UniProtKB/TrEMBL annotation:
CDD domains: ABC_Mj1267_LivG_branched. Pfam families: ABC_tran, BCA_ABC_TP_C. Residues 19-293 form the ABC transporter domain. InterPro entries: AAA+_ATPase (IPR003593), ABC_AA/LPS_Transport (IPR051120), ABC_transporter-like_ATP-bd (IPR003439), BCA_ABC_TP_C (IPR032823), P-loop_NTPase (IPR027417). Keywords: ATP-binding, Nucleotide-binding, Transport. This is Amino acid/amide ABC transporter ATP-binding protein 1 (HAAT family). GO terms for molecular function: ATP binding.
Length: 320
């Protein structure tokens, strides 16, 4: 039995709030890409973000992660520090999981620097793979880890004992994360030579290397075959079980409805419905939104049939 099948009965999520978006609106000139959208994400929760093409999912994601400053509204994140370098570093002997969730702090109206957001405990992956193609898998993950190390430029140039100690710790943690995502044996493989599904998992390992409280995944299964999709689903459950909050954008409805505790459906920049997967997939407006876009019938079938099917997609389906 896969983890996906075991998790059908969703545990009640009682964790602290790690992210709160209120009235987020984003305009590009005359185009209202996101209109007054709210979202709360708790520790240990998987939240799905769905909607037809152009619904505003990525734009909303970019507002959540501080990449865009919303035209109006506010995003607050538990852990965004006023002094990024020190705020959520664990004390000696304290594991990362044991660090209490700090109070919510606004991401806006002052847009934070991306590095500050990462240090505060928010990590993301992108729709298109953005690995360092000519670096090994291990090196890619080590790069993600550097936001948690303290060696400055001078220490790195001089390569003294402190540098070597930190480098060893970084290497060990990177290997641990590769093991966690199932790529332990590929540590020395060049990223560009790895199979597509492994590259996606490597991106997740690199994001996890920043010790996030919240990880946002933008279409993590895009282009994956059915087996890779199942593995991605199991990996996301594993991440959730380690105490993180997860937000996922995905077009694969079966994947989303089997994975998530809650789903927010955006249509033309507005929140159409937010609820449990069961509530969302049975809402006729959601089905209509997909049909109404003129997207192919597969999407329609996906929404309606997702409740009777597993994340297992028929093996004959190829990569999209
Ligand atoms: N930087 C930008 N400048 C101008 N318009 C933009 C920009 N980014 C997105 N848009 C527009 O905002 C709307 C929402 O786009 P967005 O990419 O957020 O949708 P999406 O739901 O993520 O779509 P998809 O599922 O196709 O990735 C679209 O009409 C898009 O053309």
């Amino acid at each position: 039995m896969t983890i996906a099948e075991q998790e059908r009965v969703r545990p009640e999520v009682t964790g602290a709030t790690v992210l709160e978006a209120t009235g987020v609106t984003m305009r590009f000139g005359g185009l209202l890409a996101v209109n007054d959208v709210n979202l709360t994400v708790r520790e240990g929760e998987i939240v799905g973000l769905i909607g037809p093409n152009g619904a505003g999912k990525t734009t909303f994601f970019n507002c959540l992660t501080g990449l865009y400053k919303p035209t109006s509204g506010q995003v607050r994140f538990a852990g965004l520090p006023r002094k990024p370098a020190k705020a959520i570093r664990p004390k000696k002997g304290q594991t990362v999981e044991a660090v209490p969730v700090p109070p919510l702090e606004p991401l806006s109206p002052l847009p934070p620097k991306p590095r500050a957001v990462v240090r505060a405990g928010m990590a993301r992956t992108f729709q298109n793979i953005r690995l360092f193609a000519n670096m090994t898998a291990l090196e890619n993950v080590m790069v993600g880890r550097y936001c948690r190390t303290s060696a400055g430029a001078l220490t790195s140039v001089l390569r003294g004992p402190k540098f070597h100690r930190e480098e060893e710790a970084t290497r060990a943690r990177a290997q641990e994360l590769l093991d966690f995502v199932g790529l332990g044996r590929s540590a020395e493989h060049l990223a560009r030579n790895m199979p597509y599904g492994d590259q996606r998992r490597l991106e997740i390992a690199r994001a996890l290397a920043t010790d996030p409280k919240l990880i946002l995944l933008d279409e993590p299964t895009a282009g994956m075959n059915p087996q890779e999709t199942r593995q991605a689903s199991d990996l996301i459950f594993k991440i959730r079980d380690s105490g993180l909050a997860v937000v996922v954008i995905e077009h694969d409805m079966r994947f989303i409805f089997n994975l998530c505790d809650r789903v927010l459906c955006l249509v033309q920049g507005e929140a159409l419905i937010e609820g449990t997967p069961e509530e969302v997939q049975s809402d006729p407006r959601v089905i209509e939104a997909y049909i109404g876009t003129g997207e192919d019938e597969e999407d329609d079938v996906d929404v309606q049939d997702a409740h009777v099917q597993d994340t297992t997609v028929a093996d004959e389906e190829g990569r999209s």
